[in-house]
Amino acid sequence: MPVDPGHKEFPKTSSDFINCPQCGCPNRVADTACSYCDEPLSKMAGVSVRIRRAYESLKWRYKLKSPRSNPGAVVKRRAGALFTLVLGFLLAVIGGWFFVTAISSTSFSEFIIGALFLLYGVYTIIHILKPNRS
């Protein structure tokens, strides 16, 4: 049975190659079977093939997005959280120092600077230690 090139499921062609409907490997136009998976190139994809492709695509998308697939990303995320936590404590300590200095010398500008540092440090610590609800 001849294949209709205008059909929506016909393999995408260019002047040099045809993509395999099974694995996507590029093949020469003159080839009748895929050089990688040996699937006939003129065969239309059935329902079971489309379901299997969709399942494989969704499975790989999930694996690529999961943090277990890239352990380096988990380490970087934890290192970033630790750095932010240390920075929050440092800001809170500096803010506390400015705040105490402002109370002892009655300086309004040091009071404002200390309050801002202290609030930002506490805000950072709270949001790093807060559990994710995603």
Structural overview:
There is one protein chain. With 134 residues, this protein is mainly alpha-helical. It has 2 domains: 17-65, no CATH class; 69-129. The chain is built from 3 helices and 2 strands. It has helices at residues 47-65, 71-105, 108-129; strands spanning 17-19, 26-28. A two-stranded antiparallel ribbon has the order 1-2. Strand 1 (17-19) and strand 2 (26-28) form a beta hairpin. Helix 2 (71-105) runs antiparallel to helix 3 (108-129). The longest helix is centred in the middle third of the chain and has 35 residues, at 71-105. 10% of the residues are buried. Residues 9-14 have low confidence and may be disordered.
Summarize the helices and strands and which ones pair or pack.
Blueprint: E1 17-19, E2 26-28, H1 47-65, H2 71-105, H3 108-129
Antiparallel strand pairs: 1-2
Helix pairs in contact: 2-3
How big is the Rg? 30 Å
Helical run tally: 3
* Helical coverage, percent range: 55-70%
> Mean pLDDT, rounded to whole units?
76
The total strand number stands at: 2
The rough form would be described as rod-shaped
Structural class: mainly alpha
The low-confidence runs, each spanning 5 or more residues with pLDDT under 50, are 9-14
- The fraction of residues assigned to DSSP E strands is under 5%
What distance separates the N and C termini? 53 Å
N-to-C SSE string, H for helix and E for strand: EEHHH
Strand order of the largest sheet: 1-2
Number of domains: 2
Main beta sheet: 2 strands, antiparallel
Notable traits:
2 domains; rod-shaped; mainly alpha
Brief account:
Helix content is 57%, strand content 4%.
